Amino acid sequence: MKRYDSKNEKIATISTFLLIPLSGLVTDIYIPSFPDMQKAFAVSSHEIQLTLSYFLISYGIAMLFVGPLVDSFGRYRLIIGSLFIFLLSSVALAYAPSITFVYSMRIIQGITTAFIVVGKRAFLVDIFSGAKLRNYMSTLSIVWAIAPISAPFIGGYLQQIWDWTANFYLLALYALFVLVLELRYSGEALKTFKPFRAKEILTSYRTVLSAPDFFIGLFVLGCAYAMIMVFAMSAPFIVENHFNFSPVETGYCALLSGVGVMIGGFIGKATIEKKLVIKLFCAVAGILLLGVGMYVSGFYIDHIAVLMIFVLLLHTASGFVYNAYFTYCLTRFPAHAGVSSGLTSGGSYLFTSVLSFLMISTFTITQQTQLAQSYIGFGLLIGAVTLPLAFLFRRKERQLVSTTDEI
């Protein structure tokens, strides 16, 4: 087995940062092609949106179980194998004969992406520690935001110049490029392989999930990302059907949405030392105020510029929330890096898929006011769990002070 060589740290880290946004790239690049895919397969818009839901659900479920596997069998071989399968599935999608085949390939992509992302996050824990590790983990959500920014923008042009299949050819080329980097410069960095024993694995899961602050964090992350995904799933039909723009304009709108997520990530990174609960309360207040403003203005001004100003600001708040709690969850249990990494993404993605599906099913989002209602709903959900979270942190602080006094 090829071992990681620290002399390749720089390129191996770059390769990691290229793979971390893969989940966002796979979900967002073909969004501008939704209407074209709807016509190509002669199905409803809801059936096309399910291609995204199937990926999110399979990705989320796989994330829950990938952690122990990468802790027991190592990161490197699983990542290499998953990248190869992902590459093949992307090519297969370009030749998909039916929507059912698309669903099956998206499920495969969800599972392989889970192995890749969890493995690479754990890889960073293997080679870094302390403040440097926290800095890289905080940077991850900013790097991840590159996909929502660039993917729909690129996908819009690919759709305009070629058709929907070009998106999946690009994914295949991307996977091939990073696969070469991994084979050449990366390797197995895990020093101690944990025995693959059910009892020890269940103990790790119990340790992580029994922490209320961690479990609440999964729900908060799910809400924050669901805000972004509801817009992503609705944008092609709002922009192209309601406002009569092209897929390129859908890409520009998604680009602006991603900019908001990235700005929020930078704000989260800049305030990394501030108290988490205070940051969440400020974000919730902002989401609710902006959501109400977006809803009211929608009755008076039906213009894409107004819509996107609110989306930019709301996704900035969402990106801020995601960065704050993402960093907290990933660094909460360093002794269980694979399990906590898998549960952080898997649990949050499951919440994301369920919440976004319920929101899309509850509201037929075709205009600004309906989208605003979904944002208000997510703001209320985050606010509802922030109150008990504040109580938990306050109790932990009192216990720490009490222990210190006894010492």
UniProtKB/TrEMBL annotation:
Superkingdom of this protein's organism: Bacteria
Spans through the membrane: 12-31, 51-70, 77-97, 103-124, 136-158, 164-185, 214-239, 251-268, 280-298, 304-326, 347-366, 372-393
Domain Major facilitator superfamily (MFS) profile: start-end pairs: 12-397
Organism phylogeny: Bacteria, Pseudomonadati, Bacteroidota, Sphingobacteriia, Sphingobacteriales
Keywords assigned: Membrane, Transmembrane, Transmembrane helix, Transport
Name of the molecule in the record: MFS transporter
Coiled coil (UniProt feature): none
Keyword Disulfide bond assigned: no
